[in-house]
Amino acid sequence: MNEHYKKALILAAIAALAAKEIEASEDEVKEVLENDMNATGIFDDDLRILVNACEDISWDDEDDDDAVCGGPLSGVVACKENVEENIDKIINGLKVGYNFIPGIGAGWCRNEDDLEKMKDFVRGALTVQAMSCPCAGYGA
Questions:
Q1: How does DSSP classify residue 111?
Q2: Which of 69, 84, 89, 125 could form a disulfide with 74 if both were Cys (CB 3.0 to 4.6 A apart)?
Q3: CA 114-115-117 angle, 5° bins
Q4: At what angle do helices 26-35 and 3-19 cross, to 10 degrees?
Q5: Torsion-angle region of 106 (φ positive above 0: left; ψ -120 to 50: alpha; else: beta)
Q6: What radius of gyration, in Å, describes the C-alpha atoms of the chain?
Q7: What pLDDT is recorded for position 82?
Q8: What is the pLDDT averaged over residues 85-92?
Q9: Of 12-16, 63-67, 98-102, 133-137, which gets the smallest average pLDDT?
Q10: Degrees (nearest 5) of the Cα angle 89, 92, 94?
Q11: CB atoms < 10 A from the CB of 89, how many?
Q12: Any idea where the domains of the chain sit in the sequence?
């Protein structure tokens, strides 16, 4: 197979994988091309076969990660940034006075000291909620 053909096929495969939100380096795709597929010489067919082969490898890696992670924290770990961002939005919205916290209830803060205590309580409660059900909106 021509080196220019290989290079074009690899770059097209990387672009197709990126469109599917799968990261792959040139070396990884080149390894799949050279070891895991039989090229036909028809660019569109080879591209489809190469992308499918790379997706299969990507999915196998994800399955391995799930098997290792497991447990109650796996959902939070997988969506850590989203969970933290959503919890921080709620925490930053608390103020002195009346506060409604989705999923927890309502509370009243008399002063800044009460507010800091409420922020600590709410952060802990929302974290526990996210760990027990990551699909409840904080980890989805």
A1: S
A2: 69
A3: 65
A4: 120
A5: beta
A6: 24
A7: 67
A8: 84
A9: 63-67
A10: 115
A11: 9
A12: 3-69, 74-132
**Is 57 or 112 the better-scoring residue by pLDDT?**
112
Q: How many residues comprise the chain?
A: 140
Nearest partner of 120 among 139, 94, 138, judged by Cα: 94
**Nearest partner of 126 among 102, 96, 100, 93, judged by Cα:** 102
Does residue 135 surpass a pLDDT of 60? no
d(C-alpha 135, C-alpha 131), whole Å: 9
Residues 6 or more apart in contact with residue 21 via CB below 8 angstroms: none
- In the chain, which ranges are continuous DSSP H helix? 3-19, 26-35, 43-69, 74-78, 80-92, 112-132
β-strand partners of 99: 107
- Cα–Cα distance between 68 and 62 in angstroms, integer? 10
Q: How far apart are CA 81 and CA 75, in angstroms?
A: 11
Burial state string for 62-83 with b = 16 or more CB within 10 A and e = fewer than 16: eeeeeeeeeeeebbbeebeebb
The structure tokens 């197709």 sit at: 16
